């Protein structure tokens, strides 16, 4: 370092803080709210059908709700990486609680839809603030994976409890209201935003200061493009699993078991990253995951055996869960303030919102075999940029760790 650090300038230390019960609870709960709508998608569609909408209209309402939350997430991502992260999260969660609360009790179908969209808008800030806050915690691999495991476990609980209580407006939207309020209560524990950007430290330590920030900037932009493209191909396979199963004679009961098993095994893949932490790395495992995932998607499109399809769906979702948390860790590793991890999930949801439409169009146009090949090719095309982006991310962390070891205050 060429100058002594001050309170207004970067210090030669990692600006991230360690994961604790309080900051972890806040990040994981707010993140859960941000992703819960997508996780409860089938139940939400069923409730809208109960209200009086047909399946197509119900799907459109859900799509626009997810799209609204994603747009708000993207729109607030830069602010979520700033000093008012907790305020932004709290305001959004209040809006979400009001919207979902009204959706749980109003009677007129138009009011139910309006209230649901309002709640979806509020959820958008949970997407951006939780994504940005993850970057403020040390060891992004472990934090991102832990968040994923907690998310899946709590989703499994919610998916089990709501049917037991009876699937209806009051139970489904009431659950979303309760989750929004619980998250609101812990927003005060969200990690504070560092006073400076990680990119400043990297620039100061680099032999070519201008080149290092440019590399990080390009990697950040790259992950916001690559991740949604990859996610759209993944969600196209997942959401169209019933169509794929019907084509090979997979029964509804077997498909339901397959999807449940896929969710459980996927949580196991996230647990591996949690336990391994930064030792697992990012570039090589992401490259391998995309390669294997692409091959599995192609196989899904080519198989005509129901048992083989069931196994492949479990495999592809396991690979997806593993890669998902490493993508999030890659974005978080690029900057401790969350400049890239903040908008990441919002960008992902924009793409995944239209995955069923894109996937169905491909299947209708050229068939299931070509659909599998197309989804696999997406993986193969993204391998090289993903590996390069991940290498920049791990390089940033190595630089910070090196500076931290040199810092007299570390």
Fold and architecture overview:
It is a single chain. The protein has 410 residues and is mainly alpha-helical. The protein folds into two domains: 169 residues, Up-down Bundle (Growth Hormone, Chain: A), CATH 1.20.1250; 209 residues, MFS general substrate transporter like domains (Growth Hormone, Chain: A). It has 17 helices and no strands. Helix 9 packs across helix 10. The longest helix has 39 residues. The radius of gyration is 21 Å and the shape is globular.
Secondary-structure blueprint of this entry?
Blueprint: H1 21-39, H2 41-51, H3 55-75, H4 77-80, H5 85-105, H6 109-134, H7 140-165, H8 169-186, H9 198-205, H10 211-239, H11 241-248, H12 252-276, H13 283-302, H14 306-334, H15 341-353, H16 355-366, H17 368-406
Helix pairs in contact: 1-6, 1-7, 1-8, 2-3, 3-6, 3-15, 5-6, 5-8, 6-15, 7-12, 7-14, 9-10, 9-17, 10-14, 10-15, 10-16, 10-17, 11-14, 12-14, 13-14, 13-17, 14-15, 14-17, 16-17
Transmembrane segments: 26-48, 60-81, 88-110, 116-137, 149-166, 172-190, 216-233, 253-276, 283-302, 308-332, 344-363, 369-390
Protein name: MFS transporter
Organism: Brevibacterium aurantiacum
